[in-house]
Amino acid sequence: MKDIMRSAVTLRSFSYEPTGLMVAAPTTSLPECIGGERNWDYRFSWIRDTSYVIEALSMLGYHKTATKFLYDIMEIIKDEGKIRTIYPINLKDDLNEITLDYDGYLGSKPVRAGNLAVNQLQLDQYGSIINAIYHLCNAGGLINSYLRDFVKETADKITEKWSEPDSSIWEFRTEPRHYVYSKVMCWMGIDRAIKIGKMQ
């Protein structure tokens, strides 16, 4: 249990208080393999990662913290009228990617600032946030009309976009393709939306 609590504290520490957004990692350009080129800047907020945290905190009974994370990101999405793939945690920084003239971890290159995934469609994000809402509500979180409206709007967006090719969780820098993971997450979003709709 001690390790679980330490993990929960670590997750909480990755949030940026002024906006409530959670950084995916405090680092940039750690290589997926030493000497490889898939070295990305993850010092930004992804809906997917935030959704995982909301889900984990909900299951641990931290409903207040999970609710705050959820409502902070919902407010940003509502204000912008869409779900973006990536958000700068201060909502101001430029996400355009540049390559820096430095060696990274164990000499790995390139070292990047910014992330081109900001321009990608990642369909799983829609299902991820609805699934997080489902887990929060299922764990005893408050269901209200604001939450229901958000779920409905997001589910409607899934019905519009699910058949499109995307870049999915892997964020390959190739032409968008049809990924099973993305389609399953779209299905999950609709499934969870229906279940939320039946909750009292």
From TrEMBL:
Keywords: Hydrolase. Residues 4-196 form the GH15-like domain. GO terms for biological process: carbohydrate metabolic process. GO terms for molecular function: hydrolase activity, hydrolyzing O-glycosyl compounds. It holds the Pfam family Glyco_hydro_15. InterPro entries: 6-hairpin_glycosidase_sf, 6hp_glycosidase-like_sf, GH15-like. This is Glycosyl hydrolase. It comes from mine drainage metagenome.
